[in-house]
Amino acid sequence: MADTEKVEEKVENLSLEDKKEQVADKPAEIPENASTEDGKKKKKKKNKKKTKKLDVSEQTEPPTIPVTKFYSKFPVGEYMDYGEDNLKKTTDEEKRYLERLENNDINDLRRAAEVHRQVRYYAHKYIKPGLKMVDICENIENSVRSLIEAKDNDITSGLAFPCGCSLNNCAAHYTPNAGDDTVLKYDDVCKIDFGTQVNGQIIDSAFTVHFNPTYDNLINAVKDATNTGVKCSGIDVRLTDVGEAIQEVMESYEVEIDGKTYQVKPIRNLSGHSLGKYKIHNSKSVPIIKNGDNTKMEEGEHFAIETFGSTGKGYVHDDMECSHYMRNENHVSLRLARAKTLLNTINKNFGTLAFCKRYLDRLGETKYNMALNHLVENGLVDPYPPLCDIHGCYTAQFEHTIVLHPGCKEVISRGDDY
């Protein structure tokens, strides 16, 4: 029997009730220009196409797809209850409220955090001995620019400060200037420190890269110390108490290098800090030693919990050629025309966020050293040279950004890597 005959026979054998159900289930089709009873033409509805969100696994290597293609509301970090000595506790109701939170600042911050996570996941795979430090930094920075949709002359989203790649005894604030061909080696201990920001909401997070297992305990000490600082932080917690907890954990570690054993020391003149809108270092410092600062953390504040460990003296000083600079809030009349032009470039592209000489090169600025020095001398721009412990020692760093919500803290930069 032909297929059409089978179908017809099947339809005929249906009961009246079955036929009614079939008709009810299937809406009647109305011709495109059909008239209704009141004489008006009924327009055919067009189905709106829904924008399909990508799966994060579809991100490219190196990363190039903006995170807004994956999310509209960005993932939360890690919620943590406050400690037993802190009266603020997280209830299930508060957690649900936080998950529904539509605060633009928090969504901006989580967007910046997602960019940081995706870029550093790639950085972990990409960084290896034999690469030039300048290539490592520019690869990371360009990935951030793509994912966060940064634009020149627009500070609404982008890098919060230059990518640091400080090596060995240098703990912080080193990024290559033009002509610096330093190459990463197997025995190097490299601190990768970069920041992201959306509408001035800053994520400051860092990790340490090493290849020689000799330095495992140094890295473990600093990672443990940072996590301890995160755990101890909370509303009404004294800053000195956070520093004391960090110090105790870090000094409990030892590392053996070339047959000599070193106690891991916290670098006492470096610290974490509170974060403000477009301000990487706000009013409060979070020590990594017990220092007697009884200032308390407060509800709603953002902090970078940042620890540094060393096999040297545990004290850093300015060294090497300066690369990092930051505009302050001073206002001074300038006589040098070239300095005025450079200041205009800095204001448009960085505002009060940190920048480096490579960033000026990228924007097409040339022969700017005299003008930059003039801005420094007149107190409009502050220099931040590399910070180093004694020659021959090794330093490590880990850092997370946290937010003190009313009911709990959020480790907003937390990822699967650290």
UniProtKB/TrEMBL annotation:
Which residue intervals are annotated with compositional bias (Basic residues) in the record? 41-52
For the region Disordered, what residue ranges are annotated? Answer: 1-61
Q: Which positions does UniProt annotate for substrate binding?
A: 173, 281
> PROSITE patterns under this entry?
MAP_2 (PS01202)
The task this protein performs is described as: Cotranslationally removes the N-terminal methionine from nascent proteins. The N-terminal methionine is often cleaved when the second residue in the primary sequence is small and uncharged (Met-Ala-, Cys, Gly, Pro, Ser, Thr, or Val).
HAMAP family in the cross-refs: MetAP_2_euk
**What is the name attached to this protein's record?**
Methionine aminopeptidase 2
